[in-house]
From TrEMBL:
Protein name: Prolyl oligopeptidase family serine peptidase
InterPro entries membership: AB_hydrolase_fold (IPR029058), FrsA_esterase (IPR050261), Peptidase_S9_cat (IPR001375)
One GO term (biological process): proteolysis
Gene Ontology molecular function terms on file: serine-type peptidase activity
Every Peptidase S9 prolyl oligopeptidase catalytic domain range: 211-381
Pfam families hit by this protein: Peptidase_S9
Organism encoding this protein: Duganella guangzhouensis
Organism lineage: Bacteria, Pseudomonadati, Pseudomonadota, Betaproteobacteria, Burkholderiales
C-alpha cells in the first residue's frame, strides 16, 4: 500500500481511498505535505488540521469548476467537482462524530456529487427507496448498452464509506462496461441513513436489503431474476447475511470478508489489527447506536455469520487481500468454508502478483475489481469483452 505517511496507517489508508476514487496525486501531495509532522503523533491528534487541509483543496476545485461553468466548459467543471467531492469525503470520514462541521460538509458533498455527474453526462440517477417513515438513498449507474432489463448489483458500504466514495471507484466502470448496472446504497449505519436520518446499523441486514429488492423488482429497466449483492469491508458481513435470508438475490460477493466482526472488536481491544478511521471507538458506537462500550460490545457479539451461511443457495464469491491489516485472512476462509450449499462458491485471495493485497484492495483496486467484475458478469450473463 502507498504509505504516504510512513508511521500512520489510518491517514495513509485515507490517501489510498482518495486516489482510488479519482483523486490526483499532485493535488493530494499538495494537501498532505504540510501534515507530515502531525501524522507522526498518531491517528487521532491532528485530525482537525487534516480536515482543513482536504477541505481547502476541495474548495479550490469548486472555485475552478465555477470558472469552467462560466465559460461553458461543463465536462471540465464536472471533473473538478467530482474530485472535490472525494476530497470533502476524505475530510469528513476522518473526524470524530462529535466534530460539528462534518455534517454540513457531508450534505454539501452529496449535492455536489449529483451536480458533478450531471455535468459529466454520466448515465446515472439518484434513487430514494421507501423504508418505514423515511427512505434509503442510493445512486444508480446504468450499464452500457440498450438492454430493456439489465442485471444489477446492489453494492453496500462498509463501516465508514459512503455511496459517493464507492461509486467513483473503478468497479463502477468495470461492471457497467460488462453490461451490469450498479446501485450504491447508504444502508442503515452509513452515509445519509446515519448522518441525516439517524438510522444506526442493523445486525439483520436482510430487513433493509429485502426492501431494496422490492424496489428493484418494480423497475422496468432491471431484470428481477438477475439482481446480485456485493459488500465491501463490513459489507462482507451485511451481504452474506442478507443473501442467506433473502432468496431473491441471484448471487452474492464480498470484497473483504468479515465473517466475525464482533469477535474482531474484542481483538481490537487487545490492539490486534489496524483501525480504519481515527476516533475508532466513538465511531463504532455512533454507527451501531450504542450509548457506551458495554452496550456496543453486547451488540457486537451478534455480528457474525456462524450458523447462517448454509442457507445460501446461490453462487457466491469471497475475496480478500493476503496482507489485509484490518481483517485477518482467516475470516475469508471461514466464510468460504461455511458456504456449503452454494452451488458455485469461489474463494479468491489477492496476492502480490496481481496486487490488491490490502484491505478492500485499496492498494490496487483495478486488477482486483476486474476479477470481481468478470466473475459477476459470468454469473449474471454480462459481457466479458466487446466480441464475447
Amino acid at each position: 500500500m502507498f504509505q504516504y505517511f510512513p508511521t500512520n496507517y489510518v491517514w495513509s489508508l485515507a490517501v489510498n481511498a482518495a486516489l482510488e476514487s479519482g483523486g490526483r496525486i499532485g493535488e493530494i501531495d499538495e494537501v498532505c505535505r504540510p501534515l507530515r509532522d502531525l501524522a507522526t503523533q498518531g491517528d487521532d491528534p491532528g485530525t482537525e488540521a487534516f480536515f482543513q487541509a482536504w477541505v481547502s483543496m476541495g474548495e479550490k476545485l469548486v472555485a475552478l469548476a465555477e470558472e469552467d461553468k462560466a465559460e461553458g466548459h461543463f465536462f471540465s467543471a464536472g471533473e473538478k467537482l467530482d474530485r472535490a467531492v472525494q476530497y470533502f469525503a476524505c475530510a469528513e470520514r476522518m473526524q470524530a462524530h462529535s466534530f460539528a462541521p462534518r455534517k454540513a460538509l457531508y450534505s454539501r458533498y452529496v449535492a455536489l456529487f449529483q451536480q458533478a455527474q450531471d455535468l459529466m453526462g454520466a448515465r446515472w440517477e439518484r434513487v430514494e427507496i421507501p423504508y418505514g417513515d423515511e427512505h434509503l438513498a442510493g445512486v444508480l449507474f446504468h450499464a452500457d448498452g440498450k438492454a430493456e432489463r439489465q442485471p444489477l448489483m446492489l453494492c453496500v458500504n462498509g463501516l465508514d464509506s459512503t455511496k459517493e466514495m464507492l461509486a467513483r471507484t473503478q468497479i463502477t466502470r468495470q461492471l457497467n462496461q460488462r453490461g451490469i448496472a450498479c446501485l450504491y446504497l447508504d444502508q442503515p449505519g452509513t452515509g445519509e441513513a446515519l448522518r441525516l436520518h439517524d438510522m444506526p446499523a442493523m445486525v439483520n441486514s436482510e430487513v433493509w436489503a429485502s426492501k431494496v429488492v422490492d424496489y428493484l423488482e418494480a423497475r422496468t429497466d432491471v431484470d428481477p431474476k438477475r439482481i446480485g449483492m456485493m459488500g465491501v469491508s463490513l459489507g462482507g458481513y451485511y451481504t452474506p447475511r442478507a443473501v442467506a435470508f433473502e432468496p431473491r438475490f441471484a448471487i452474492g460477493a464480498v470484497w473483504g470478508a468479515n465473517h466475525n466482526w464482533g469477535e474482531m472488536q474484542k481483538r481490537r481491544l487487545l490492539r490486534e489489527g489496524e483501525n480504519p478511521v481515527p476516533h475508532y471507538w466513538e465511531h463504532v458506537r455512533w454507527v451501531w447506536g450504542a450509548d457506551n462500550m458495554d452496550d456496543f460490545m453486547a451488540k457486537a457479539e451478534q455480528i457474525h455469520l456462524n450458523g447462517i451461511l448454509d442457507r445460501v443457495r446461490v453462487p457466491f464469491l469471497v475475496t480478500h487481500g493476503e496482507q489485509d491489516r484490518q481483517i485477518p485472512l482467516e475470516y475469508a476462509h471461514q466464510t468460504y468454508d461455511q458456504l456449503v450449499n452454494s452451488p458455485q462458491r469461489k474463494l479468491k485471495i489477492f496476492t502480490d502478483r496481481e496486487g490488491g493485497v490490502h484491505h478492500v484492495s485499496l492498494d490496487n483496486m483495478a486488477n482486483a475489481g476486474a476479477f470481481i467484475a468478470d466473475w459477476i458478469a459470468g454469473q449474471l450473463g454480462g459481457k466479458l469483452g466487446p466480441a464475447v
